[in-house]
Amino acid sequence: MKKALKIGAIVIGVLLIISLIVFIFFPGLPNVIKVSFKYDHMYDTVPKFKKVSVPEYYESYNIRGIKLKAPKSASLNETGSALRGDDGLSFIVMKNSLSQNEELMENIDLGDYLEEEFTKDELAHYFKKLGKSVPANDLWYAKDEFKPTDGLRMRGKDAEIFLYYADNKDGAYKMEDSYKLSGDGFTAYVSTLLDSELLPVGNSKTKLWTVLLYPENDDDLEYFIMVRAVTDDECKELISSIELE
Length: 245
Prior knowledge:
alpha+beta; Protein Transport Mog1p, Chain A; seven-stranded antiparallel sheet; 7 helices
């Protein structure tokens, strides 16, 4: 009996030592386990957008530096920022300066409508522990790069940031389908809202398709594109034809 007790004590002691070592070197392990079981999309990454062939009879258009092909029936609006067709086709392009957008947000007092989750220094500390710089786009970082094992060495405020990104990633995957599109001189992210009833346009029965496009030669420029057409296949044709001027 005494021998059995001694063996049991040794086993418990070894387990406690192992637990202490794990806690010291991997303090975020409980959070890693938590998000892995709580959420469905923690290990998902954004798949590639599958380009489709574009009909030869489509005409070429240029909207604010974005070239594309679309049916001949489409026409540019007066400002040259959108392409529209009588059948519900809509291709809208907006050019954004990332630095100006950030400066604008810093100067706007949103009061109770938006509370900053974390300071820039806190985010910089978190990403430094991951060996990365703070991403320009929180959403796409969460959807494509965030993974549960990022949280293994996180404690305190870093652990809070880890849980924040885990929740964001799961929510984003439940809201929309997303794809990564690579082109000549740019990287883009294509998304479709899962609720096809949102933001109807004309006769279009498709989901709203959006494209965030980032030119490789301009870190400050972002193109935001909204696409609707009669069918999802036609939306894919428009997006597949996208090029930079």
